[in-house]
Amino acid sequence: MAHIQIINGPNLNLLGKRQPEIYGAETLADVEANCAALAQELGLEVSFFQSNHEGAIIECIHAARENAQGIVINPAAYTHTSVAILDALNAFDGAVIEVHISNVHKRESFRHHSYVSGRADAVIAGLGTEGYQAALRRMVTLTAG
Ligand code: CA2
């Protein structure tokens, strides 16, 4: 069974508690519960990690080198700033899917560039929190065999 590490970056612990007009009403706990239920259906093992600290996210990606076949990552604001997270993902051999809840391309121009997209096998933006589930469905194919 493929193991998928789901990683959420800074401020996503506030999901559902502020700015519902941009990020929706679901909390991060709701997203995790929905992903866990879908993963069971799809025959995937999933783990969840959220941190407001860049180094902690990098450590989680390093650990995934040993224990995961895929990473689903919403790096949040680090998407637009972090060469260090890109470097960590470049050291990971499995599948990588970048998820953004909002359509970053419809927002401020500083959100249009992602360091992570150059490494990601797929990029999902603007599907709301359903984007995480779309990523898991695609992971079935990317991690098969
Ligand atoms: O659309 C996304 O998923 C983002 O990755 C979210 C980031 C933002 O910096 C990216 O440009 C796009 C921000 C996450 C902050 O999440 C909050 C959720 C609720 C309330 C406040 C912040």
Automatic annotation (TrEMBL):
It comes from the Bacteria. It catalyses: 3-dehydroquinate = 3-dehydroshikimate + H2O. GO terms for molecular function: 3-dehydroquinate dehydratase activity. InterPro entries: DHquinase_II (IPR001874), DHquinase_II_CS (IPR018509), DHquinase_II_sf (IPR036441). The keyword Transit peptide does not apply. Substrate binds at residues 74, 80, 87, 101-102, 111. Keywords: Amino-acid biosynthesis, Aromatic amino acid biosynthesis, Lyase. GO terms for biological process: amino acid biosynthetic process; aromatic amino acid family biosynthetic process; chorismate biosynthetic process; quinate catabolic process. It holds the Pfam family DHquinase_II. The active site is at 23 (proton acceptor), 100 (proton donor). Pathway: Metabolic intermediate biosynthesis; chorismate biosynthesis; chorismate from D-erythrose 4-phosphate and phosphoenolpyruvate: step 3/7. The record marks 18 as: Transition state stabilizer. It is an enzyme of class 4 (lyase). Its EC number is 4.2.1.10. Belongs to the type-II 3-dehydroquinase family. Catalyzes a trans-dehydration via an enolate intermediate. Homododecamer. This is 3-dehydroquinate dehydratase. It comes from Pseudooceanicola albus. The lineage of its organism: Bacteria, Pseudomonadati, Pseudomonadota, Alphaproteobacteria, Rhodobacterales. The gene is aroQ.
